Amino acid sequence: MADLADSKQRNIAFLRRLEQQRLQKPCTKIIDLRGKVVGECQAYSFGGLTHYLDDRAYLLAKQLLDRCNGRYTIGVNEALLKALKSLAGQPLETHHKSESKPILLRDKDSIQFIAFDTLLARKEPRIYYTTAIELRISDVLYHASTVDITTSSIRIVMKRAFTLSQDDSVTVNFTEFCADPSAQQMARVNYSIFRVEQDDLHSYAILVRQRDDDSVITQWLDNWSQQHNTLEHLDLDDLLLNLASHYYLRLFTATLTSPLFWLSDTNAKDRIQIINLSNSAKKFDALRLANHAIDFSVVPFDRLLNQQRFLLIVYPEDNHLKSAVIPTENKTKIADALVWSSQHKQAYVLLLQTQASKVNLGLIESELDQLKDLNTDSTDALVDRLSAISHLAVLTDISASCQNSMPAVNTTEDHSFVPPDFVPWQGHIPKPSPICPYINSKHPRYFIKTAITLNLNNTSFDLLTNDVSITGVSLSLNGYFDIEPETNVNLNFTRWQSQTKAVKLNAVPYTIKRVDHWQGTTTLGLERNINACAESINRFFIAAIDRNKTQLAHNDQSYFVSQQSRVLNDTAGKILSAVPLYFGMDANNKRILQAIAANSVSDKYPTELWYALQQLVTVLSEQLKLADNRIQFGLYCHSDNSGNWHLATDYHLTKPPQKAVFINRALHCQQFYFFHCSLSPIKSVLLEQQDDLNQQLVKIRHHSSHKVKQIREVLTSLFAIGELNDITDILTAVYH
Questions:
Q1: How far, in Å, CA of 524 to CA of 522, rounded?
Q2: pLDDT tens profile 582-592
């Protein structure tokens, strides 16, 4: 038996040696995978033969050849075919190419996130252009086609590739471009793979490069992009999303309820460079005196550059306003101050937040040259003013959210709040201006002082105009007059009427478009209702100005305000401490939270919180409808152990004990946030006033009418904008 076992072992060893000898013999079989695999097959030579392999098969063959010292043997052939057969039986790993989505989402389950802090203000146009390229990784060659091209990136499509990975370094040969003798540098351009997506038959990739990697290639691609920078070649999805984002940003800054203070750290006396007030912020009652003037001197501008967040308690005393300033990290004083303010019904609680800020004058570089042609001194002053800005301070009235607050313990005389001595700001306070990135001055304005009589609310005012255009008039009244825009009035041009009998100028209809109050003066901007005027009246104003315009001085201030607003609007969108919320109607005409501005502030909060907010949309809409104006309230949120979010507002928590129970429950949860929310209705006229953006949409409509229509439908469906400020630290100080 032992001899039989030994004989069997010798036979097995002999057969193994024979098999090893067979596997080590040179192989003469050609491997041709063309038509058998989904990937692109290239010709590769080894073993004195030419084989046709895709990228995966070649890399497997290369590994096997390395083990056999580069020899193409029967063993290499059989191992490769066995591996390929095994892989062919496995399902393909696919990451399907993203489906095309509408530019703007309109679904409560898919909130649109608008990135204000990375608005697509592209310095590099993205050109839709298909051209053949060769892509090489080490010694593996792929043939692909571009989908779009920028100087810093290309998007490509190719047959299914198995070995491309994110961050791989690749070399691209733009074969079509290299047909031009002046573009030979495009035969070897270095990229890295930023993203790869797959389907069953194709691979899609985004390749990126650094602009400063090769200045010659960068310059060539810049020139090529400019030559093809037409709507026919541009990536309209990016262009439309960029355009829509500007609509959203302008709607937000136009309805912002908080004053904006643009500050300089270089000049103590001229600390305040610019004050911005939207129409909503003009009604900032917390700083309004008995004579209706706004008193900015209670704001501690001398302390803002060193502190990010203050609580400001503003209260009247002896016909003046005074303020107490408390850093938000001083929890004890915060709690005591809120108790004190609740006991003084005329006191307001304001949140003052400061951010470092530098403006980007590059946004209006070309426009500055045009402004210099109008007025060099005004242009230089504008540049100096914007260049001096180092910080943005935002003042928000959070009084509504601090009502019905119950401190955790009763305050005692030992630490009760006593307003400190108040010293008002003594520096220069500039006249507030709106943020108007586009001012539709249909006709030039001229400095004309002519006598008129304004008939307003059954009262006549004899005035002199500030300036006049073919269709508009500006004038000022001494005192404060609470006048709403879109009010219709009549003007009697007394002086001009005395000089003509051809037309009647004693009751010309105008509509008030702009109302400003400053230092005891109410300034009105009016537009003539040309459709309600006889044609002879309209011709009179055209002829009167045309006849004298060579002798008249232009009022070009609106051009400077517009360019200043463009810069500040862009800057504010990137650094505002509030989270903008947009409420609209979905395709089924149901009210939803449609969009949120995605920036460094909103990114701090879990996405689930925003979707939980959908449950409050109906309640908030009803409250807004009842108020017929903006509403302000506290929003209180916490998640339970299961990750479900619970939300309540001051409309739910109407009594102090209810609010205390909800907030104390929140304080024992792992995640909780408290916000002050201001909700303002959107008037359709706001969208109509964005003429520059509307004109861009009209141009694109000829190339993508369906997408332009969809954007317009979403924008016109918006009915309210929310302004969300985090006050978690303030209320935590009270209830802890």
A1: 7
A2: 999 999 999 99
Q: Which two tokens stand for residue 138?
A: 């080490």
Name the pTM for this structure. 0.76
Give 305's contacts (C-beta < 8 A, 6+ positions apart).
Answer: 263, 265, 354, 390, 391
Q: For 685-703, give the secondary structure using H, E and C.
A: HHHHCCHHHHHHHHHHHCC
Is residue 717 within 8 Å of residue 594, measured between CB atoms?
yes
pLDDT for 90 beyond 90: no
Percent of the chain beyond pLDDT 70?
A: 93
Residues 6+ apart with CB under 8 A from 423: none
In this predicted structure, what is the pLDDT of residue 410?
Answer: 52
Residue with tokens 């075919």: 81
Tens digits of per-residue pLDDT, 64-75?
888 888 888 888
Whether 356 and 539 have beta carbons less than 8 Å apart is answered as no
> Residue 196 in contact with residue 94, Cβ under 8 Å?
no
DSSP letter string over 334-401? HHHHHHHHHTSTT-EEEEEEEEE----GGGGHHHHHHHHHH-HHHHHHHHHHHHTEEEEEEEEE-HHH
Measured CA distances, 239 to 174, 234, 638, 680, 709 (Å): 26, 8, 38, 28, 15
- Residue 725 token pair: 């400020």
| Angle, CA 515 vertex, CA 511 and CA 521 arms, to 5° | 125
In the chain, the amino acid numbered 534 is A
The span from the CA of 519 to the CA of 478, in Å, is 9
Largest CA distance in the chain: 140
How many residues appear in the chain? 736
Whole-angstrom CA distances from 390 to 114, 517, 540, 567 are 26, 27, 49, 14
pLDDT category at 264 given cuts 50, 70, 90 is very high
Phi, psi of 313, rounded to the nearest 5 degrees: -100, 115
DSSP letters for 275-341: EE--TTGGG-GGGB-TTS-B-GGGS-GGGGGG-SEEEEEEEEETTEEEEEEEETT-HHHHHHHHHHH
Question: Please, what's the b/e burial string for 344-367 (b: 16 or more CB within 10 A of its CB; e: otherwise)?
Answer: eeebbbbbbbbeebebeeebbeeb
Three-class SS state of 229: coil
pLDDT of 705 strictly over 90: no
Contacting residues for 677 by C-beta, under 8 A, at least 6 apart: 401, 581, 632, 633, 634, 635, 649, 722, 723, 724, 725
Strand order of the β-sheet with 309-317 is 272-276, 260-264, 389-397, 348-356, 309-317, 320-327
Output the six-digit token pair for 543: 């002829």
Q: Return phi, psi of residue 703, to 5°.
A: -105, -20
Q: Backbone phi, then psi, for 698, in 5-degree steps? A: -60, -40
Q: Round the average pLDDT of the chain to a whole number and report it.
A: 86
- Sheet of 645-649, strands arranged across: 112-114, 591-597, 579-585, 720-726, 672-681, 631-639, 645-649
Query: Angle CA(255)–CA(424)–CA(318) in degrees, nearest 5?
Result: 95
Residue (of 148, 143, 152) closest to 208 by Cα position:
152
Give CA–CA dist 658/651, Å, rounded: 11
Both structure tokens of 371: 């402004």
Distance of CA 426 to the CA centre of its chain: 36
Q: What percentage of the chain has pLDDT greater than the value 90?
A: 41
CA–CA distance, 178 with 132 (Å, rounded to integer): 11
For the CA atoms of 401, 405, 409, 415, the dihedral, rounded to the nearest 10 degrees, stands at: 60
Q: Is the distance from CB of 546 to CB of 553 less than 8 angstroms?
A: no
